[in-house]
Amino acid sequence: MSQYILDTDCVTLFQHGNPAISQRIQAVGSENIFVTVVTLQEHLQGRLAVINQVAKSPELLENAYRNLRITQAFFCNMNLLDFDNRAKDCYQNLRQQRIRIDTQDLRIAAITLALQTIIITRNGKDFGKVPNLAIEDWSA
User: Fold this and answer.
1) Which pairing describes strands 4-6 and 33-36: parallel, antiparallel, or unpaired?
2) pLDDT tens-digit profile of 20-51?
């Protein structure tokens, strides 16, 4: 069975119960679904930014902290992949090729290439610029 990495956008869709993604995850088995520490970083940065924006509004702050806790619990239950030495080497190689996509997406692509697995994304436009990257879109 193949292993799959959900990109940041697909993680958000999964968290919000997107039926297409949820069905595919169930079909392949959650043990074959992974997320990267890069996606974790992006989600935590987003939650922390909201907390900082609403810091002077106690009624909004309560919800912002609740969402941070939900995000933390979600990632604790996911198979998390590190940005390891192999990913670093792939990332440096991709940067030398001057591939013009977002830095975080390039890091996710590097992890995917290093593990020779498949990225699940709706962003085929950008991830498609990465040579030899296996891409699938489960959102439809």
Assistant:
1) parallel
2) 999 999 999 999 999 999 999 999 999 999 99
Contact 67, 57 (CB under 8 A): no
* Residue 138 to residue 83: CA distance in whole angstroms: 24
Total domains in the fold of the chain: 2
Q: Nearest 5°: phi and psi at 46?
A: -65, -45
Residue 60 lies in domain? 44-79
DSSP 1: -
Determine if the pTM surpasses 0.90: yes
Strands (E), the chain: 4-6, 33-36, 79-81, 118-120, 134-136
